[in-house]
Design a protein that fits this description.
With about 475 residues, the chain is α+β, with helices and mostly antiparallel strands. The chain folds into three domains: about 40-235, no CATH class; about 240-330, no CATH class; about 370-480, Immunoglobulins (Immunoglobulin-like, Sandwich), CATH 2.60.40.10. The protein is built from 17 helices and 18 strands. The strands form six sheets. Strands 10, 11, 12, 14 and 16 form a five-stranded antiparallel β-sheet that branches. A four-stranded antiparallel β-sheet has the order 15-13-17-18, with no helix packed on it.
């Protein structure tokens, strides 16, 4: 079925050439994507299952007696299985964004909009909502007939059932999303007891409304008009990028014919002009007009066209994954793959893997304890019994792991410098931050007047009570004063 549009016309004043009609803007006509099966459809639904299993199941997993994946904004702790991130680890969020950006650049340069067609939440939830719509209202033809008939009890029942399922799925999605920031078991109990806080309430309904609106109503409009990726993707494409391509040389001139017709005698190409490729497209475009920014690379048109080619007894691949050079130069699959390894792809790959490897090494070597030293500025220095000069310090120690720590603290920089005011070694609980007030004392003859640079040393203490600097050793500089 051809895609048509309603328009709001502007009718200018008549001139010598007569009345002219010009479209001011296009009114959206609902798209009814036809269900399709095939190799690519199976892969697309595999990604739908994988992404949704990860999203919906992850908050329910447990690790060390707590939620395995939890971004606890109130406590300023991000738990990802066995790793705990703190605000001081913000650099890792930056690195994650860089990895995501370079991955997007790399995948786009190699094979177009793979992310959009297979893993983007908009695509995934639209696929799920379309599946619900087909199960309740029927296939494409049944949906179109239902929308054109007058209001009836059957129509109200079907529409109500569809939207009820959509709303339930959207609210569950919103609940799961909030469950990543508020422990999901506590969140469930708060909902059951009607004691949900304002923050959780807002985001549950906001995310649910966004899912319902984007996947149920806006659909292709998000991809065509709201998503910025559709607008700048062309800068990452070149003629060797693998995209969904129509083989115009093989398909044209298009036209209908019987299965037994002689296409050469009729002067026709392989395209039978069935418009299946248009009917299955979730954005409603005609891929036979060439690559368009509205194409999200979902490959539904490839599966649909291949089914028609199979029924007609023609070779598949009239619409296929290929580069523009591959189609125009009749390149084989191996030749197109060899052209994938071109300079821009190699640069993206090198940068991406460098960042990933460096991040992996950084996480592996990450010291599980962080220390900040703060001098007590209320009293820079004072003389105490025994002719000793005393300075007071506050040590903020952060244990980033979920096991308790025993730490030894020493200081160097002045002869006979002693640590006091705190019971050594200090104990710090799992995944916690503690402040310790301690003092450093040195003989008056050992410390010079003015300021002297000193250094605190923090090392883990093993079960045998001995220092274990091989595991890690922290060194924090400070100043010791004497008047």
């Amino acid at each position: 079925m051809a895609r048509t549009s309603n328009v709001i016309p502007i009718i200018p004043a008549p001139d010598a050439a007569g009345d002219q009609e010009q479209a001011l803007f296009e009114v959206r006509k609902k798209i009814y994507p036809r269900a399709v099966s095939g190799w690519f459809a199976k892969w697309r639904w595999t990604l739908v299952w994988i992404t949704q299993l990860v999203f919906y199941v992850s908050p329910w997993l447990s690790w060390n007696g707590r939620q395995a994946v939890l971004f606890d904004l109130g406590a300023r702790k991000f738990y990802i299985f066995g790793i705990v991130f703190w605000p001081q680890d913000f650099i890792y969020l930056t690195i994650l964004l860089l990895i995501s950006a370079y991955s997007l650049f790399l995948f786009t340069a190699v094979a177009g909009r793979l992310w959009c067609g297979y893993a983007c939440p908009q695509t995934v939830y639209t696929e799920i909502f379309l599946w619900v719509e087909r199960k309740i209202e029927g296939d494409r033809s049944a949906q179109m007939r239902l929308d054109t008939v007058e209001l009836s009890a059957r129509k109200v029942a079907l529409k109500s059932a569809k939207h009820a399922v959509w709303i339930a799925l959207s609210l569950w999605t919103g609940f799961t999303f909030v469950g990543y920031f508020t422990a999901i078991h506590d969140l469930g109990r708060e909902i059951i007891s009607w004691s949900l806080g304002p923050w959780e309430t807002f985001w549950l309904f906001f995310y649910g409304l966004a899912t319902y609106g984007n996947a149920g109503w806006l659909r292709e409009q998000v991809c065509k008009y709201m998503c910025p990726y559709a607008r700048f993707q062309s800068v990452m494409f070149d003629r060797d990028t693998l995209v969904v391509a129509y083989d115009e040389e093989r398909g044209e001139p298009r036209g209908s014919r019987s299965k037994k017709a002689d296409t050469k005698a009729l002067g026709l190409g392989a395209c039978v002009d069935c418009e299946i490729c248009v009917q299955v497209c979730p954005t409603g475009i005609d891929i036979r007009h060439g690559l368009q920014y509205e194409c999200i690379g979902c490959t539904a048109c490839i599966d649909g066209c291949n089914q028609v080619m199979d029924r007609m007894g023609y070779a598949p691949g009239l619409i296929r994954y290929a580069s523009l050079n591959g189609v125009s130069q009749h390149l084989g699959w191996k030749e197109m793959i060899r052209r994938v390894f071109r300079p821009r792809v190699l640069v993206y790959s090198t940068v991406l893997w460098t960042i990933i490897i460096a991040t992996g090494i950084s996480l592996y070597l990450r010291v599980p304890v962080k220390v900040d030293v703060i001098r007590d500025r209320s009293a820079l220095a004072r003389e105490v019994a025994g002719g000793l000069i005393e300075n007071v310090y506050r040590l903020q120690i952060m244990n980033t792991q979920e096991t308790p720590r025993t730490l030894g603290i020493t200081a160097t920089g002045i002869d006979d410098l002693k640590v006091g005011g705190v019971t050594l070694p200090v104990q710090i609980g799992p995944a916690s931050t503690q402040m310790f007030t301690l003092n450093l004392r040195a003989p008056a003859e050992s410390a010079q007047k003015g300021s002297t640079r000193i250094e605190f040393h923090i090392v883990p203490i093993g079960p045998d009570g001995k220092a274990n600097p091989e595991e890690f050793s922290l060194h924090e500089k400070s100043i010791f004063f004497k008047y």
